[in-house]
Amino acid sequence: MRLSPLRSVPRVDLLIGLAIMALGTLEAFTVATEYGAAQNPELWWVGQALATGVLVWYRRRAPVAVFILMILAQYLWHRQGNEQCPVWQLAALLIVFHTIGAHLPLKHGGAWALAGILIFDSGAVDHRFLPFEEVIYLTVMFGSAYATGLALRGYLLRAHRMSERAARLEIERERRAVEAVAAERSRIARELHDVVAHSVSMMVMQAGALRRRMGTAQEGEHSSETAILSGIEQAGREAVEELRIMLGALRMPQDEALPQPGLDMVPNLISTVGSSGLRVTLETEGEPVHLAPGLDLSAYRIVQEALTNAVKYAGEADVRIRLAYRRDHLELEVADNGGGAGPALSTGNGLIGMRERAELFGGTLDAGPLPEGGFRVRATLPISQGVPMSEATN
After folding, report:
1. Domain 263-392 is classified in which CATH homologous superfamily?
2. What is the pLDDT of residue 357?
3. Of 347, 267, 249, 263, which Cα lies nearest the Cα of 305?
4. Name one GO molecular function term (predicted).
5. Which of 48, 175, 276, 365 would staple 379 via disulfide (CB 3.0–4.6 Å)?
6. What are phi and psi of 378, to 5 degrees?
C-alpha cells in the first residue's frame, strides 16, 4: 500500500502550511476589503491561501521551484488589482527566503536571494515605481529572512561535522580499547608461557632425569617409583602441550576466540570456489584426529588463505589440497599449476599471517613458485596424540 504524500512532509512544515491556510482563510473572511478587495469575504483568496500552504509544505524538497512559484503568485496577485500584500502572503515569502538560505549552498542560495530582492525592489512584481524607503524596507526584510536561513545552515553544518567527529572518535576509542585488550591478552600469554610453562618443563626434565637414573638400577628395584616418575613426566608433557595450545588461543584475535570452523569444513570451503574456474581436489592421508580448537582453526585459516590466493591469481587451474595426519604432526599443502604470483597473498594477513599462525603452534610454513609452474603453500604443525575421528564419533 502506498503512503500518503503528506507522510513525507516534516511535521513542522505541515503545521506552518496549515497555519498559512488558516490565516489566509481568516483574512479572506474578515479584512479582504482593507487590502483592496471588492467585497468581504473574498472567497478566491481561500484557494490562493490553500495553494500557498501546499507550496510551503514542499519548500525543503524543492526550494528553488517553490521560491519561483511564490514570486509568480505575487505577480499574479498584483495583476488582479490588489495593491497591498496580506499578512499570510508576506509570511510565506519570508519563509521561502529563509529556506533558500538554509537549504542551498552560499553561492547558489545567495544568487537566488539577490535575484528575488531585486525583482521586488525594481517594482517588477506590482508594475510601479517604489519609493526609496520601501526599497530599503523590502531589502532589509527579505535579506534578514535569507540571513536567518544562512545562519541556520551554518549551525546545522557545524553540528553535522561535530557529530561525524564524535562518531570517528568513538570508533577510534573502541579500536584502541580492542587493541589494549589484545595487548594485555598477549602480555598475559607471554608471562604465563615464561613462568608456568618454564617451571612445568623443568619439572618434566627433572622427573625424566631421575627416572633414567633409577632405570639403571637392577631390574625389579624401584619399579613402582619409576612408574610414578614416568607418569609424572607424561602428565607434565601433556600439561605443557595443553598450556601452549591455550596460550595460543589467548593470543588470537578476540573474534577468533569464539567457536570457529576447522579442517572438517574444508569440503565446504572447496564448494564455495567451484564457480571460479578452479578444479580443486582434496586428498587426506592418515587417519584424521581431533585437533585442539586453536590448532584446528589455524590449520583451516592457512588452507583458506592459500586457496583464496589461488582463486585470485591462478586463473583456471588445478588445485590440490593435501591433509596428511602423521603420528606427531600435521602436514598441509595447497598447490596449483596456474600462473599464480603468490607472494602478495590476498586477505591482508597473507604469507606473514599464515606463517605466524604456523609458528604460534611451533610449526613451519614455506611458500613459493614450483619449478614446473604454479604455486605451493606447505605447512607443518606439531600435534599431540589426538583421538581418531572414527573413535570420537562412536
Report:
1. Histidine kinase-like ATPase, C-terminal domain (3.30.565.10)
2. 82
3. 347
4. kinase activity
5. 365
6. -135, 130
